[in-house]
UniProtKB/TrEMBL annotation:
Keywords: ATP-binding, Cytoplasm, Kinase, Nucleotide-binding, Transferase. The gene is gmk. Transmembrane segments: none annotated. It catalyses: GMP + ATP = GDP + ADP. One of its GO terms (molecular function) is ATP binding. It comes from Allosphingosinicella flava. This is Guanylate kinase. InterPro entries: GK/Ca_channel_bsu (IPR008145), Guanylate_kin-like_dom (IPR008144), Guanylate_kinase (IPR017665), Guanylate_kinase_CS (IPR020590), P-loop_NTPase (IPR027417). GO terms for cellular component: cytosol.
Length: 210
């Protein structure tokens, strides 16, 4: 029997964080490909565009001066320095998506997650850990794109990022990328069903019991 009215909900903010090389980007891509109810938040960044990237699809590429203006105007929900560049989550992009009932996936670090929690406490925070630091270093080296100095810098930063694991709601170890993706998806589906996120549920239950 159909419900007398739709039980709508506000979209949720779903954060994925991990040190570089732990598989976060791969898991995010797989999640987006398996669930059309969630969209990736496209961040603004001051780093140069890489071959194959598109403005507005991968990032909004802006100058340092433009980024300064956006910070001053309050256009970011959060922003942070990462490897000498700045990245920010655009308030307008996120709010338009969640108010339409779609979830937003944010690929941000612990600094951004802390800022976001202060702006909107109703977020879901998932941290992805590597199986070991040796495995993390092996993955970074297997890319074949970074110098030795960059790899060591990433390893140092990884240790600092991992120290913030306890600030997250869920912590997963990425031993197998597909299994980890499935766990992340299960978390997302469970969070969607929380009573506090179902608009109209109170009225519906009140109508049931009279």
């Amino acid at each position: 029997m159909p419900l007398p009215f739709p039980l709508k909900r506000r979209g949720l903010l779903f954060v994925l964080s991990s040190p570089s090389g732990a598989g976060k980007s791969t898991i995010a891509r797989l999640l987006l490909g398996s669930d059309d109810g969630i969209a990736l938040s496209v961040s603004a960044t001051t780093r140069p565009m890489r071959p194959g990237e598109e403005h507005g699809k991968d990032y909004f590429f802006v100058t340092d001066a433009e980024f300064d203006r956006m910070v001053e105007a309050g256009e970011f929900l959060e922003w942070a320095h990462v490897f000498g560049r700045r990245y920010g989550t655009l308030r307008s992009e996120v709010m338009r998506t969640i108010e339409g009932g779609q979830d937003v996936l944010l690929d941000i670090d612990w600094q951004g997650t802390q800022q976001l929690k202060q702006v909107d406490p109703d977020i879901v925070r998932v941290f992805i850990l590597p199986p070991s630091m040796d495995e993390l270093e092996r993955r970074l080296r297997s890319r074949g794109t970074d110098s030795e100095d960059v790899i060591q810098s990433r390893m140092t930063r990884a240790a600092a990022e991992i120290s913030h694991w306890a600030e997250y709601d869920y912590v997963l170890i990425n031993n197998d990328v597909e299994k980890c993706r499935e766990l992340v998806h299960n978390i997302l589906k469970a969070e969607r069903l929380k009573a506090t996120r179902r608009i109209g549920l109170h009225d519906f239950v009140r109508g049931l019991i009279g």
